[in-house]
Amino acid sequence: MGSGSGVDLFSGFNEGEVDEVLRRCVGCGRFVLIGPPRSGKTFFRENYLEGRLGAGVTVDEHTLGITTTTKTEGGEAKGELGIREKVMRYLEGVMPWIRRLREKVRVEDEELRRILGDRAPKPIVEGARGMIGDSPHRAYYIPWDSDEVRRCMEEPGACAFGADVGEALKLIKEAFGDKED
Known about the structure:
flat, three-stranded parallel beta sheet, two-stranded antiparallel ribbon, about 45% helix, 5 strands, single chain, alpha/beta, about 180 residues
């Protein structure tokens, strides 16, 4: 096994992702995996894709660094401007070009929409399109908003992927997810 070898608690999820990649990459010379930082793209490529896509197929990985703007704490949760928004507005006033970085555009690509939503900052959408080019691609990430993942976190013992996966998802969400009061 490659990167982070050990027990893969997400093998069922990963096998489903392999099926989708194989479907998209029929006769392709380059396939692009794109997703958030630390989502498991390298592990997935090394342990599930290498040797399965055929000779001469290159798999490129690209990270989209997105931060959430969910209002969850203090004045922000009450509808007031949070510190991040106050800082951004101040910077826009001092350096008007920053406004361009926050301009959102419609996300046309289905896979990018899975990660970014319907609208995202223009530089991020354009950068992602540049990374992907004309290559088939797949967004690789944990779908936190899916019913299946929610069920696994709420009742790890009833998780379709196994209790260990449910517990792992809970730990990941607690360590890296948004804080909810």
